[in-house]
Amino acid sequence: MRQGRIRLFPVIAAVFLIVPIIEIYLLIQVGSIIGALPTIGLVVLTAVLGVMLLRMQGIQTFLRFQQSLVQGRNPAGELLEGVALLIGGALLLTPGFFTDAIGFACLVPVTRRTLVTWLIARFGSGLQGSLHTPRAYRTRGNVYEGESTRHDDGSTG
Questions:
Q1: How far is the C-alpha of 130 from the C-alpha of 76, rounded, in Å?
Q2: Number of domains comprising the chain
């Protein structure tokens, strides 16, 4: 493995160890200030608000994705925004305030687009080779309409 590359397993292990500790700490702190039931209510409220925001932002992102395809533009940004929305939605459904903060950052258009812009700038060369606009959406020249029939022998005409 090349030097300078981050090994994935230790990072994932650290996240699965550190994030629950942060969540428990924050839930205890908030619960000691506002009480247990209001804390639970706040966690449920953030999940409900997150689902509503996810639905709204998801529809808008999907429409922009379709528009990019129709215009023949590379939809990499919209695809990455869709991934960020999925991650944000999952984090908002996870109980806790730390994951809610990250989840809302993935759902709010300004922070989500900033993240996507950074990802494209950082890893853009890898995205360019793997995300191409489908040929059906690229039109250069005339479009011809016609009919085709298939014969029993497999030929068309």
A1: 9
A2: 1
